[in-house]
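Quick illustration for those who missed Monday's session on complexes.
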Amino acid sequence: SEEACPHHLYQVQLFSQDPLVVYIPDFITAEEAEHLEYITRDKFTRSEVADQYGNLMNATTRTSRSTSVASDPVVRCIESRALAFQGYDTPRSHLEPLQLVQYNVGEKYHAHTDWFEATSQTTAEFGGNRHSSFFVYVAADEITGGGTNFPLLDAPKDERWCKFVNCDEPWDAGVTFRPIPRNAVFWQNLHKDGRGNRATLHAGLPLTSGSKLGMNIWTREKPLSPQYRSDGLN
Ligand SMILES: O=C(O)CCC(=O)C(=O)O
Ligand SMILES: [Fe+2]
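Prediction with 2-oxoglutaric acid bound:
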């Protein structure tokens, strides 16, 4: 039985190979989660989305509030972890500032991809397109609903996944990751040739009760220009 196996520390689980999706329990610590909440507590504004031309706007498709996070030693640790996870080869300059997203009852983010279709959002100063995404559940209080749904991924068959994904959903709804504090979902947005992978389509489902604080960690294909980075370094 599994109980007889020696203890090990790593916990990541491959969820899907194509697109690459990896589930990461305990991606951030309780102290880091509290710190993120604390340093952003009065900073949230209505979330923006980019339209097909790359114009940023408030839209009914994304009703959360969000803020980017200024760099500090705790934030740098989280960034380092995200870079190490991706194989150490990616320099910090490829990271967008961490983005926190706050949802209350009824709020959601309609199905979207994190990679951009609009070339105005993938210019050299933005570091090209978003190569990968981590979505981290920072906090979830008394929550129902509010999972992250990938409609084009296959639901897992093994019921041991049910602690991380909602197994009560119809199989044709794809997969919905539960908003479990400090856990993260990682995925690769782009094919090898740089084209966006449509199967990474996903949505933040509406909350039917409680509240949720999430965090996006987006890695671009190339370095962002200093003005768009949290460290502002050259
Ligand atoms: O809220 C979620 O579960 C997903 C949010 C998301 O996909 C995003 O902010 O890009
Ligand atoms: Fe997203």
